[in-house]
Structures are given as C-alpha cells and as structure tokens.
Amino acid sequence: MQKARNYYVISYKMLSLGFLVIYMCNAAKAQPLNIKNDVFWNTADGRPVYSQGGGIFKFIDPVTGKKKYYWYGAHYKEAAIYRQDPSVTLPGPTFLSVTCYSSVDLVNWTFEGDVLTRATLDSNMRTTWVGRLGVAYIPALKEYALFVQHGNQVLITVADAPNGPFSWYRRINMQAMIGTTNTGDQTVFTDEDTGKSYLIYSYGRGRNKIYVSEIGVKNGLIDLLDCTQVFKGASREGNCMFKYSGKYYMCASNIYGWDASDAYYMVADNIRGPYKPVDDMAVMEGCEQDYAHVTQTGFFVTVKGSKKETVVYCGDRWAEFAGNGLGYNQWFPLSFNKETPVFNSLSSWNLDAKTGEWTIGSNNNYVLNGSFEADRNHIPSHVKPVQTGLLGWHTVVTEGNIVSLDSSTSPVLNYFNTTADRKIVTGEKSLNITDKIPFKRKVYQLVGSRSKLPDGLYTLSAMTKGSNGFARLNMYADTGKKARRSDIQNENDTWKRIDIRHIAVTGGQVEIGFEADGAADAFCYVDDVSLTKE
C-alpha cells in the first residue's frame, strides 16, 4: 500500500500561500487512495504488515471515541523470511503472534502491536497450530473476544480494548456441537445492522459442512449460543461471509491445501438460511481465469460510504509456505449484477472509504494469471483440478502434439521455476512453450473480454528465457486494427525483458500472446506478463 503524501509545508510568513497549501491538502485527502496487489504491504510508517487468516472489524477507538477499522491476523515466522527472499518455498508456518493494525481509510495502517503472543499461549499449554481468527465485541461484558483456531479446539482470548493485549480465557471443544473437536476453517462476522457477531466455520474433518453460531454470553461465559448447519456438500475451506443490500453471502474456497482456487458463494435472506443454491455453492463470476487473483477466500469488509456501498474481498495468498507470488494480502472490490457478486481481478485500484467509491488504478496490470501462479500443478493435470489448459490463457496447436491428459505425448504447458529463476521472476511457475517433436503453437489471452479496456496507449511486457531452434518466436499484441510483434531472441539463457510500447487500444479489447515455430525440444519460458496503461 502506498503511504499518503504529506503536503503540510506551510510558511507562516506567506499566509495566502499557506491557505492554498491547506486547501490542496484537504483536496488530496478527499481523493481515493491506492491499493496495490502483488506486492508486500507496509504500514503508513514503513513497517512490514504481517497479517494472515484474520479479519477487519469496526470498533470504537478508546482514545478518540470514534469508530475506525481494526485488522487482526496471524504473524508467522516464515512470512518475514519469504518477504526477504521470495526465491525459496519454506516447509510450513511457525506461529509468532496475532497482530493488530488500525486505519480510518483501509489503506494507511498503523501497527497497534502484537495483541496475542506465542509466549502467552505457551504459558497455558503447548502451542501447535494457531490461525483463522476474528474479534467480536461482547456488550454484556464490555470485552473484546478473539476467537482463534488453537490446536484441536477453538480458543477464546479477551481484552478490555480493541488493541489488546488479549489474555487466555477458555477453549471450546466443538465435539458436542458438530461432532469434531475443532473447526475446519473459521472467521468472525459482525452484522452491522444488528450488532450481533457470529462464528462462521466448517466441519473439522473433510470440511463438507458449514455452520453459523451466534457469539454471546451463556451461563456467565463468552460462548457460542447456537449452531445452525447451512451447507452440506462438497468440501470447502476459507469460510467467511459478508452482507450486501440486506442479503447474506456465505463464501468459501476449494480444498487445494493452501493454493488458490475459485471463490464460491451462496446467498440467503436470513443469516441462518436457507441459502441458495441449496447445499451447493456457485462460482463467483470473474474469479475463474486466475483463481481469484491467486488467493483463497479470507474475509470481507463492507464499506458503507456516503455515495456507494462497496464490498472488499480480502484474499489470503500463501502456500506451504508462500511461493504463489508476492504479497500475502490481496484485496479486490466486488461488483454486483442484482444479487450476483462479480470479482474484479485488479493489481491496482483506488478506494475512497468515505464515499465508498472505487476506480481502477492507473498502473493496473490487465493480464490475468500473468505470472502463471494460478495453476497449482503441471498442466495438463490428472489431479484436482483436472484441466488441460492454463487458467486465463488459450493454447492453439497448429503442428505438433495435441494438448491432452495423455502424459506420454502431450506437451507440458508450464515450467516450474528453480530457485535461481525466482531470484529474477515471480513465483514458482512460468509459461512453457516446447514439444518433443517439431511444433507450431500460439498461446494467447483476449484482454478486455469480460470488461472493456479503457481507450489509450498500453505497454505489453514479459520476461523470457529459452533455447535456439525456433524459426519464429515472438510476443504480439493485436487490437483488431493493427498487430504489433516483438521477436524473442534464441538461446537466451538468462531472463530478459521484452516490451511492445504504444499499443493503441480503441475498441476495448486487445489480444496478446506468443507465437512459436520450433524444432523438437526447442523451448521458451515466459513469466511476469503485464499490460499496463502508459
């Protein structure tokens, strides 16, 4: 996230100039602020943001008495290591603390502190897995309750203020309620219209059921007051929800470990259902071509502005541990077609938290799955998800082996980057253009097929690396009125960037891609494809 510029430079000897500067400052404050994905985020004062598997809630600031956003999440040791060196994938997460950040605009964040530490947990019992958490305010006790997965049960910790510190309260064994001691995944959802908070969670084994439980006080203790099963079907994780225009949306991701997947949803008029589709979940429109911008469903924030209500999808990006691209937190605005939510896969967008309005960022990359991280396996893949093509991309074979699930003949469409590769390009995977026999192939994406590109000049860029043996190898951009090409040099044994500049887009679409005419075993790797407005 970008740090807001400080325009407070006032000369008290020049009052007229001072008033002008103040006016400009206020105007700048009213403007939308930028949210940049595919990068690691910092606080307003430049500290790293470490927050995963959590949630954002609006609470009263104990100092100012005004509401602001509080963001809670888990800080894992490996997050800092991967941030410093994204060329490696680490074996797994080691919990350090629950962090808390605060903000009034959802862009500039202040670190409030480590509100629950590993030392606090270890002083009560041995810490194993800690994650998937959220905070609810308990009016009857005037306390804040942090619900967090802790080993094989649900832990409740409490604090007198939203910025903690939180202390051990009690653990809940979920066995009597749902049949397993633990929840699968969980989040906390607060209904701003009623003030009530709920734990949203899945069955602990298999995760094929989803439940809603109101959070409150029972027998003098903070507890779950009830349990309503709202879904039974295919296994789901990353359970979370939002409310929009009076309707409740239950969302989840697929069971792909910690890799990305489609974002699923179902909708109801009552938080306890019935939800539609019944015991099924629809795929959120707009997420299919890059698996929700290479994320899992994390949580949602609803911004009720003076002009517009905007729901922000807050996705987690992580694998065991990391490797799926840069940045752990990836946020996107949702659009709605009546009651149907639409995911907007953007690398850069602007949000005005006061008005609720959002716009696409001037530096947005319009290419979907441009770093080829959305595909979790070698493609074609025989294991879930079974697929023959790269997400977001089309492959046309004119000569050579056809792309199929026949692993003995089909070319492999993606390349798994080495540690050395990842010091230059992003993530674990790249596009792989090769075959065992002579081949002619085109790999392309029609940018603007779902929502039109703004008119203007664009630059298409990519990183490439490959062998000799090509009669023709190029990157191209075709607007329908004019095609531009850039040759890719043979025997490029180091990653090099290629560009096509000043692509004039006037029809709302442009086809981008790569064309190859190669000998047997000739290869070209492509990564970090971007199309940005000049």
UniProtKB/TrEMBL annotation:
One GO-annotated biological process of the protein: carbohydrate metabolic process
One family name in Pfam for this protein: Glyco_hydro_43
Gene3D superfamilies to which the protein is assigned, alphabetical: Galactose-binding domain-like, Glycosyl hydrolase domain, family 43
GO molecular function: hydrolase activity, hydrolyzing O-glycosyl compounds
Record's keyword terms, sorted: Glycosidase, Hydrolase, Signal
UniProt entry tagged with the keyword Hydrolase: yes
Signal peptide extent: 1-30
Family per similarity comment: Belongs to the glycosyl hydrolase 43 family.
Protein name from the UniProt record: Glycosyl hydrolase family 43
